[in-house]
């Protein structure tokens, strides 16, 4: 069964009387070349452990299952129960693949990872996710980076650009800083909307995040660091003294902001969107 064939995928949907559901972000990838790029980006090989979020019709799941071989393990989480009969048809013959019917955001991830995977090997995580759950799901993955060696996301192109954005660019924001503080971020490939069924309204991209085992720079107090980042981007067009004192969650007054900027060696006329991750860390540490 060629699961990257539009005709085969259309026939499967018709046979099971299914239509892709927009609320689940169901746009099924039907390009063998892009499937291969995702598997390669995840560094997946024989004997590996893989967690997939969003099985869909099992197209990528099947490729992952064949790659890890029977010595490996693939656990795929699918929220749409109506797809379970399809997955039984498309990947049911692969004993190394386990389908979990659940909402990935509702899982107790430390318990789930412990129950589903051996602790003597890291977990490769791959997800084809809709825009609206990118941030919470990425946050959950990062919080469990002690078990996860790589995160590969197939997301809207604009989301990938935000994750990988450099300072002083329009795409750079709090999500960029969060991702780049925790991981090395790389855009692997742009994916045309034409290789999905049905075709979405925008192009996508494959982005790889490799969590740092030892971060190149670490904030002394991470809650303060991220509060500073949120305040700076909450009023991104304002100079830093105004942005930092305008956020009640951070709780800095103008005097404290001025002293922290001076101690960090940051020009108070700059805006938050021009600061690198390292400069945000220095600023937050200076405010402690």
TrEMBL record:
<dbReference type="InterPro" id="IPR029063">
    <property type="entry name" value="SAM-dependent_MTases_sf"/>
</dbReference>
<dbReference type="Pfam" id="PF00398">
    <property type="entry name" value="RrnaAD"/>
</dbReference>
<protein>
    <recommendedName>
        <fullName>Ribosomal RNA small subunit methyltransferase A</fullName>
        <ecNumber>2.1.1.182</ecNumber>
    </recommendedName>
</protein>
<keyword id="KW-0808">Transferase</keyword>
<feature type="binding site">
    <location>
        <position position="78"/>
    </location>
    <ligand>
        <name>S-adenosyl-L-methionine</name>
    </ligand>
</feature>
<keyword id="KW-0949">S-adenosyl-L-methionine</keyword>
<dbReference type="GO" id="GO:0005829">
    <property type="term" value="C:cytosol"/>
</dbReference>
<dbReference type="InterPro" id="IPR001737">
    <property type="entry name" value="KsgA/Erm"/>
</dbReference>
<dbReference type="GO" id="GO:0003723">
    <property type="term" value="F:RNA binding"/>
</dbReference>
<feature type="binding site">
    <location>
        <position position="128"/>
    </location>
    <ligand>
        <name>S-adenosyl-L-methionine</name>
    </ligand>
</feature>
<comment type="similarity">
    <text>Belongs to the class I-like SAM-binding methyltransferase superfamily. rRNA adenine N(6)-methyltransferase family. RsmA subfamily.</text>
</comment>
<keyword id="KW-0694">RNA-binding</keyword>
<keyword id="KW-0698">rRNA processing</keyword>
<feature type="binding site">
    <location>
        <position position="54"/>
    </location>
    <ligand>
        <name>S-adenosyl-L-methionine</name>
    </ligand>
</feature>
<dbReference type="InterPro" id="IPR023165">
    <property type="entry name" value="rRNA_Ade_diMease-like_C"/>
</dbReference>
<dbReference type="GO" id="GO:0052908">
    <property type="term" value="F:16S rRNA (adenine(1518)-N(6)/adenine(1519)-N(6))-dimethyltransferase activity"/>
</dbReference>
<dbReference type="InterPro" id="IPR011530">
    <property type="entry name" value="rRNA_adenine_dimethylase"/>
</dbReference>
<dbReference type="InterPro" id="IPR020598">
    <property type="entry name" value="rRNA_Ade_methylase_Trfase_N"/>
</dbReference>
<feature type="binding site">
    <location>
        <position position="29"/>
    </location>
    <ligand>
        <name>S-adenosyl-L-methionine</name>
    </ligand>
</feature>
<feature type="binding site">
    <location>
        <position position="27"/>
    </location>
    <ligand>
        <name>S-adenosyl-L-methionine</name>
    </ligand>
</feature>
<keyword id="KW-0489">Methyltransferase</keyword>
<comment type="function">
    <text>Specifically dimethylates two adjacent adenosines (A1518 and A1519) in the loop of a conserved hairpin near the 3'-end of 16S rRNA in the 30S particle. May play a critical role in biogenesis of 30S subunits.</text>
</comment>
<keyword id="KW-0963">Cytoplasm</keyword>
<feature type="binding site">
    <location>
        <position position="103"/>
    </location>
    <ligand>
        <name>S-adenosyl-L-methionine</name>
    </ligand>
</feature>
């Amino acid at each position: 069964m060629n699961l990257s064939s539009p005709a085969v995928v259309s026939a499967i949907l018709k046979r099971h009387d299914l239509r892709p559901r927009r609320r689940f972000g169901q746009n099924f990838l039907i390009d063998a070349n892009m499937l291969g790029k995702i598997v390669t980006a995840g560094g997946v090989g024989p004997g590996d452990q893989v967690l997939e979020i969003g099985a869909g019709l099992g197209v990528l799941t099947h490729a992952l299952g064949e790659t890890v071989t029977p010595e490996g393990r693939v656990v795929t989480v699918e929220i749409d129960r109506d797809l379970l009969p399809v997955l039984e048809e498309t990947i049911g013959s692969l004993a190394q693949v386990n389908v979990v019917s659940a909402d990935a955001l509702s899982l107790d991830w430390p318990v789930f990872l412990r129950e589903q995977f051996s602790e003597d090997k890291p977990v490769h995580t791959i997800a084809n996710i809709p825009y609206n759950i990118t941030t919470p799901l990425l946050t959950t993955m990062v919080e469990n980076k002690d078990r996860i060696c790589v995160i590969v996301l197939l997301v809207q192109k604009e989301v990938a650009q935000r994750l990988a954005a450099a300072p002083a660019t329009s795409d750079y924001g709090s999500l960029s800083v969060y991702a780049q503080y925790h991981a090395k971020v790389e855009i692997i490939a742009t994916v045309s909307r034409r290789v999905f069924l049905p075709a979405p309204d925008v192009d996508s991209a494959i982005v790889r995040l490799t969590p740092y085992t030892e971060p190149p720079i670490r904030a002394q107090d991470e809650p303060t660091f991220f509060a500073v980042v949120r305040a700076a981007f909450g009023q991104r067009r304002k100079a830093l003294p105004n942005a930092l004192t305008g956020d009640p969650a951070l709780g800095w007054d103008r005097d404290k902001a001025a002293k922290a900027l001076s101690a960090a060696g940051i020009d108070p006329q700059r805006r938050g969107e021009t600061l690198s991750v390292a400069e945000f860390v220095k600023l937050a540490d200076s405010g402690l």
